[in-house]
């Protein structure tokens, strides 16, 4: 395969970042991808979380394999209309419990290949889910997308994490590497009761918004902690289609309008 230029036909490139693991970065990435697809866009979702690829399971694609064609790797599509394509290291592992123990250079080479050699065809949005923190892998992502003028990064945090320096470090990383910050999303903010669907604020409200103001980045909204979303992700089911009336779906859609 020669030098590929598969990202040149992608209109919008968005990187999802979080300071810590477990704050819902992959959840936000998958729900944004599905919501953008539901709005009629062609969407690609690239999982470069080399050590913990969770996206195939969340979308019920864990048994799928990727194939190569003369233009590169063909992503796995969620639907037969091919409106949402996914690429993840998870597809290249023999078993979902296989761990990848690679040193930095090998990881970076893999990320480079993921960013160059996946044959997305025409895409309105490419959402890139990254590992937690700001590591070498993030630099590899940035170096390989910079020439395509990415729209920027969406920072994900939780109400518990807003007082820590993690999100601040993400914002600094973006500044140093010249990636615009699209905004901050507060995930798991408030708890949606599975019985009455009412949302209560377990932690104090407004932390994410205040942090966004401090960092001088736009606040994109709050996504509540919703047990039905957890279950849908566990079962690989499409939450947004299953619960069209939910407050969580409204919250996710609100974020897509801001990006
Ligand atoms: P990260 O990518 O930051 O490590 P994940 O997206 O894998 O985090 O989320 C961690 C866990 O929390 C997953 O089991 C996921 O299903 C759950 N989760 C994340 N966000 C929500 C939410 N808003 N409502 C319910 N469960 C959530």
TrEMBL record:
Q: Which CDD domains match?
A: Mrp_NBP35
Residues that coordinate or bind [4Fe-4S] cluster: 193, 196
Transmembrane regions: none
Instruction: List, separated by semicolons, the cofactors it needs.
Output: [4Fe-4S] cluster
Pfam families xrefs:
ParA (PF10609)
Keywords for this protein: 4Fe-4S, ATP-binding, Cytoplasm, Iron, Iron-sulfur, Metal-binding, Nucleotide-binding
Where is it mainly found? Answer: cytoplasm
Q: How is the cofactor bound?
A: Binds 4 [4Fe-4S] clusters per heterotetramer. Contains two stable clusters in the N-termini of NUBP1 and two labile, bridging clusters between subunits of the NUBP1-NUBP2 heterotetramer.
Q: What does this protein do?
A: Component of the cytosolic iron-sulfur (Fe/S) protein assembly (CIA) machinery. Required for maturation of extramitochondrial Fe-S proteins. The NUBP1-NUBP2 heterotetramer forms a Fe-S scaffold complex, mediating the de novo assembly of an Fe-S cluster and its transfer to target apoproteins. Negatively regulates cilium formation and structure.
Q: This protein is called what?
A: Cytosolic Fe-S cluster assembly factor NUBP2 homolog
What is the native source organism of this protein? Answer: Ridgeia piscesae (Tubeworm)
